[in-house]
Amino acid sequence: MHLIALRAEYQITVDRAQNRIFYQNFAQMRTATTLPHYCDDWRAALAEVEPGFCILTDMQVVSENGADLLSGFQTVEQLIVQRGVQLVAEVHVPGLATRHYTDAVTTRQAMSVEYFLDIWDATQFLDALQLRTGTAA
User: Fold this and answer.
1) In Å, what is the CA distance from 73 to each residue of 1, 34, 35, 81?
2) Which residue among 3, 16, 25, 119 has the highest number of C-beta atoms inside a 10 angstrom radius?
């Protein structure tokens, strides 16, 4: 795994062999009002994967964010789609509204999203997808 960004609010790493990006929110994301490096960090990560890549996102710590952050999140979604994402696997805590908040950003029309309750299941799903398709996922 290659570390792209480790910020107070999030971390982004890339596994080139798996053609996969791992994204994780941290507790500071709940109070963030700006993310000055967010788009550039994602651009750096996307430069290291090939079209057909997958993203594993740990969204267990996320909350409703203001319009300023939403705009940046949607910009990154557009970059991800343009780069050729195959699938996004999102992990959410059961019973919390985290999925509701990410649905405001991630539109299923733009990219395929599967939802999971833990990282293990999401990883196993992506690994099986890679085996089925014969590509790094």
Assistant:
1) 23, 11, 10, 12
2) 25
CA distance 70 to 64: 9
What are the backbone angles phi and psi of residue 34, rounded to the nearest 5°?
-145, 150
pLDDT of amino acid 65:
59
Sign of CA dihedral 61, 36, 115, 15: negative
- Residue 34 burial class via C-beta count within 10 angstroms: exposed 0-12, middle 13-18, buried 19 and up: exposed
* 45 φ/ψ sector (left φ>0, alpha ψ -120 to 50, else beta): alpha
Tokens of 69: 């952050």
Its pTM stands at 0.84
